[in-house]
Design brief:
Rossmann fold; globular; 11 helices; six-stranded parallel sheet; six-stranded mixed sheet; about 20% strand; alpha/beta
């Protein structure tokens, strides 16, 4: 029986077992996918023991993505550029790591908006943390003309520019609303607007009605930013699809089948996030 996992600290909130469990059942595969709690101090030992553990691989989530990169053989250029991995797999006794977040981000947008492209266009990204790096990598690869990043810490934006090129431009956080002119895509990569977090405060008055607005937050399924953008007529894409699409390549590496992101899977995970009104 093939086994895979998700390791994090904490990890109880992870919906990866729900996603991979669905695919295992759908494809009739005798396999398991489990949550493993790994404190940061224990992570190097966990990685060292992985080749003899019987696992085919697994996912790593916060706060382990950067440390995992330092402890594995990078399996793709994306992981090297991000210096972080979210997916591990074993080959010939060695642990390899890749990062599927950028491809998950783009696949979510392209599936939701057929024909969508950022090539030659301007994007505004809110935030400059690890999630932002994945988004920036995706947008740069997809040919964005300019990626303007609004963040409170200019040094973080400078670090992204040094890694991803001169298309990156820094925007002061207080100028985020003014930066939305000629923007074809607005992306929130911060935790603002997430359930239990402060709201994201931003005026969309300067945003073109043709611009696409997306939020990598998926709890709630439709953040206040997305509700406001939708109300004014912008196309919106929620963050749950990114979570689903980034999981596909890992499943294929461990279980040998490339799964699909279907409406049935989306609804299953969405109901777990928001069961709806209680009777």
């Amino acid at each position: 029986m093939t086994k895979a996992f998700v390791a994090g600290w904490p990890v109880a909130h992870s919906r990866s077992p729900l996603i991979h469990g669905f695919w295992l059942r759908h494809h009739g595969i005798a396999g398991t996918y489990e949550k493993i709690v790994v404190p940061p101090a224990d992570f190097p030992r966990f990685m060292a023991d992985l080749p003899a553990s019987g696992f085919a691989g697994g996912n790593v989530t916060l706060p382990h993505k950067e440390m995992a990169f330092r402890l594995v053989r990078p399996g793709d250029d994306v992981a090297r550029r991000l210096q972080a991995v979210n997916t591990l797999y074993l080959r010939n006794g060695a642990v390899h790591g890749i990062n599927t977040d950028p491809e998950g981000f783009l696949a979510n947008l392209r599936e939701a908006i057929p024909g969508w492209s950022i090539a030659g266009e301007r994007a505004v990204v809110l935030g400059a943390g690890g999630a932002a790096a994945s988004v920036v990598a995706a947008l740069a690869e997809a040919g964005a003309r300019e990626i303007a990043i609004a963040n409170r810490t200019p040094e973080k934006v400078a670090a992204l520019r040094s890694r991803f090129g001169s298309t990156i431009r820094a925007i002061a956080w207080e100028d985020r609303a003014e930066s939305l002119g000629e923007c074809a895509l607005l992306v929130n990569t911060t935790s603002l607007g997430m359930e239990g977090q402060p709201l994201l405060e931003i005026s969309l008055a300067r945003l073109a009605f043709s611009a696409l607005v997306t939020d990598i937050v998926y709890v709630p399924l439709k953040t206040p930013l997305l509700r406001e953008a939708e109300a004014r007529g912008n196309s919106i894409v929620g963050g749950l699809g990114m979570l689903l699409h980034q999981a596909r390549r890992g499943f294929e590496l461990w279980f040998g089948v490339r799964p699909a992101v279907t409406a049935e899977l989306y609804d299953l995970v969405a109901r777990d996030i928001d069961p709806g009104p209680k009777s």
